[in-house]
UniProtKB/TrEMBL annotation:
Stored InterPro entries: CSS-motif_dom, Cyclic-di-GMP_PDE-like, EAL_dom, EAL_sf
Enzyme Commission (EC) number: 3.1.4.52
Its membrane topology: Multi-pass membrane protein
Cross-referenced SMART domains: EAL (SM00052)
Main location: membrane
Compartments (UniProt record): Cell membrane
The protein, known as: cyclic-guanylate-specific phosphodiesterase
Residues spanning the membrane: 229-250
Keywords, comma-separated and alphabetical: c-di-GMP, Cell membrane, Hydrolase, Membrane, Transmembrane, Transmembrane helix
Species this protein is from: Pseudomonas typographi
Residue ranges constituting the EAL domain according to the UniProt record: 254-506
Amino acid sequence: MNRHRVIAVSIALAVVAAVLPVVLAAWLAWQGALNAENARLTNVAELALARAERSFRGAAQVLGTMQATTLAPCSEAHIAHMQALTANTPFIEEVGYIAGGMLRCSSWGVVQTQVNATPADFRSADGIDVHTQVQPLVAQGSTMVALQQGDYNVLILPARLVDVITDRDVQIGLRASNGQWIATSAGASAQWLGEAHPDWLQAQVQGEGWQAVAMQPREHLRGALGRELLWLLPIGMLTAAVLVAWVVWLSRKRLSPLAELALAVRHEEFVVHYQPIMQLATGVCVGAEALVRWQRPDGTMVRPDLFIPLAEESGLVQPITDQVVRAVVRELGTLLAADRSVHIAVNLCAEDIKSGRILPVIDQALHGTDVRPEQLWLEATERGFMAPDSARQTIEAARARGHSVAIDDFGTGFSSLQYLQNLPLDALKIDKAFIDTLGAEAATSSVTGHIIDMARALNLFIVAEGIETQAQADYLRARQVDFGQGWLYAKAMPAEQFTAFYQHCKAQVGSGPAVVQVARPGHAQAGGGPLPSAPLAK
């Protein structure tokens, strides 16, 4: 993913991180307010149902008591008994005695009034007939609910069945299990309570034979919503701030050079270009130096000087080196197998020289191929030899496998002569900084000659880097420098182009490169005998 996409995704994630928690907090506040109001309405309906059930139980007990009495009907004692039950039983307005279709007496006294025989609206589970619209015959007033069993009935004022302390605009209703409405609160209608209204909240509680309904306008949610937002909104805003900070942190981490480099290693975004190495005496191409390039998914190239130091510092240079080794064998394996005079130089990091970790990696890459170890030349800068004992072990193990080992960028470190004298090296590569001074009146212009003399004295092959002018090439050839590379001959190029370049050079020579056949230098220092001759690994 390139930087533009990372930035775009980061902005999108930051917006989502900023908005989503606040929206979620608002939604949770709404749900909390809704649940709170529904719970409150449910509680009101439960209270109404409990009140109605207590009323009906009380009425049923009164009816049972009167059914069991042995007092003479409508006697003073009988009427007094009904009066006492009315006074002592909440919700009951009147107790009456009915015989022969006539209301004979009630808790009000003796009465001789015709009773209209109408069927009950419904019968309760305990066998009590319930009449929901009864006009009192003695005590004129509001329509009441009558409960009748045998020769007795009781009258209950409907409003008292749902008389629950609550907000003024909360409406309450009570109905039987058959749907028959029994009571409603003041200002409410059974028809209204029986319908669903989008602007009202409704709660229903089912009891044994009864159902209580409570409704209130949705406007009540505003207060509850405000209370919920009071604590949820700060949490949402704090969460949004944390998430945005996290997104910014991740984005900066993802956009950091180290993070991009780690991702590039994981996705194997590195390619290898090959800079030809020329035999200066003949002008023949004898191989190439493998130079790693970071090619982003969008095709852009990252210069090695921008990522190699970071890779070395972070330890990512090792998997990059592994990818380079595999790429060399994969891309040039056919050429190397067909022409044994070709070699490829691979750069190693200091840690690989110190630990020797790279050698089994190379062995594995070469396994099953027809590429010989002698055709891979290993290079390391002076920093790689700062642990002389372990460096010596790695160099000796590499040379035992057939690899030649060169010190790269010679002269830029602090202890070059010490490395040359004490380590079993095969070749020395003169840094471009010294080649640039050739022919110039610079303070270091004479250093190149001394380096060449020193390498000759130590019997090392010499490779000059960064040759850009013919004058530089002529000077080096006159000083019998073995090999050179630089833009004078060719820039680094992909494997396919290098193969074509090499074939072209070989065709111009005709019989192929002229290779000096001598014992590989450095072995006398290492204590071993001469190995079979080969270009750059003689």
